[in-house]
Amino acid sequence: MDTPRSAPFDRIERVSIRLPRVSPLVSIVIPCYNQGNYLAQAIESVLSQDYARVELIVLDDGSTDGTKAVLAARAGRFRWESHANVGQAATLNKGWRMAKGGILSYLAADDFLLPGAVGKSVEKLVANPTAVLTYPDYELVDPRSRTVRRVRTRDFSYRDLAVGLFCQPGPGVFLRREAFDRAGPWNETLKQIPDYEYWLRLGLEGAFLRIPEVLAAYRAHDQSQSFAPVNPNRAEEIIQVISSHFRNDRLPPEIARAEREAKSNAHILAARLHLRSSRQSAALKHIGQAFRLHPACFLRPRTWHLIVDGLFNRIGHRLLWRFNRLFSRDER
After folding, report:
1. In a domain, 200, yes or no
2. Is residue 161 within 8 Å of 199, Cβ to Cβ?
3. Is the separation of the CB atoms in 205 and 130 below 8 Å?
4. Each residue's pLDDT tens digit, 262-316
5. What gap in Å lies between CA 145 and CA 140, rounded to an integer?
6. Percent of the chain with pLDDT over 90
7. Same domain, 193 and 269
8. Which is nearest to 238 in space by CA: 181, 192, 285?
9. What does DSSP say about strands 207-219 and 112-113: parallel, antiparallel, or unpaired?
10. Rounded to the nearest 5°, which phi and psi values hold at 114?
11. According to the model, what pLDDT value does residue 51 have?
């Protein structure tokens, strides 16, 4: 008796096929307002990354310097637009609406990324699916890109962020698009600390991961937001942000209980900005309010460090920049 032939699909061999892993698209937005002297370095630091799938969007926020010439000279290498001045937060929100990537990042026009920053950050996010953001250590550089010091960032703690007012993320952050969509856009009414206010909200969506490597550079110069004098409203923005955040019913109970401590730290930070802007009487009022809210803050070295920083930070950096310039002349 003949054995019947098997139909073509009676036997299916199980073949293991390893599909290539598709690297996520990363969208990096550079907002620029009158930072044309530094913009080229920021752009090239992104375009020279060894990670292949990077979408770069540069938005000129109504600059009146040579920004447009810098962008026009690099036409075709990335997407860029100019618009009337609307501020950093509104410009970034526009850029991220334009972005197509599943991972988002932004870079100030006067900062820059170091080699490997994108690839290492993506690798960290892919390996830690519950994390919503990564941030690295970074270099503090002077106006001529000379390294002043390495900044070792703090490991992430939401209590440190919301109560101690330590802003762990600096340059070189990368975040998941879905977490950004849940937290909502940046607050466009804020001018001094829209990034910090956003980290407070994003931190309620998941953990931040520190990468203990130097992957970015933060530039200190007279016009950078962290060093330039600010008007009184901008100096006190931190108090508005903390007061609003502690009305959020999503705060963990252990954070909500520390409201007075957080507000005391906010007044210390406001005092520092007033001191940097030579408003000593306003600074003293905030120091007094900080003491009334949480006297124990004044037992911590950080409180006194912030006050001294407000008095001497700008002077110290100017002296250092002059020393670097003299040193570079001697080398020649």
Report:
1. yes
2. yes
3. no
4. 999 999 999 999 999 999 999 999 999 999 999 999 999 999 999 998 887 654 4
5. 9
6. 81
7. no
8. 192
9. antiparallel
10. -100, 160
11. 96
Tokens of 276: 């940097």
Q: Do β-strands 26-32 and 103-106 pair in parallel, antiparallel, or remain unpaired? A: parallel
- The answer to whether residues 75 and 138 belong to one domain is yes
Residue appearing with tokens 């502690």: 246
- 179 and 289 belong to one structural domain: no
User: What is the Cα gyration radius of the chain?
Assistant: 24
Cα–Cα distance, 31 to 61 (Å, whole number): 7
With bands split at pLDDT 50, 70 and 90, how would you rate the model's confidence at 58? very high
6 φ/ψ angles, rounded to the nearest 5 degrees: -75, 140
Q: Where among 186, 219, 252 does a domain terminate? A: 219
Please write the tens of the pLDDT for every residue from 207-237.
Answer: 999 999 999 999 987 665 556 678 999 999 9
**Number of residues that make up the chain:** 332
Rounded to 5 degrees, what are φ and ψ at 74?
Answer: -115, 20
Within a domain: 326: yes
Angstrom distance (rounded) from CA 103 to CA 145: 28
Please check whether residues 204 and 144 belong to one and the same domain.
Answer: yes
pTM for this model (two decimals)? 0.85
Distance CA 179, CA 176 (A): 5
- Give the model's pLDDT for residue 126: 95
Give yes or no for residue 65 having a pLDDT over 60.
Answer: yes
Q: How many domains does the chain have?
A: 2
- Tell me the residue range of the domain where 249 lies: 232-331
In this predicted structure, the answer to whether residue 8 has a pLDDT above a threshold of 50 is no
Q: Which of 166, 191, 219 is the last residue of a domain?
A: 219
Residue 17, both tokens: 């096929």
Query: Comparing C-alpha atoms, which of 293, 187, 175 is closest to residue 245?
Result: 187
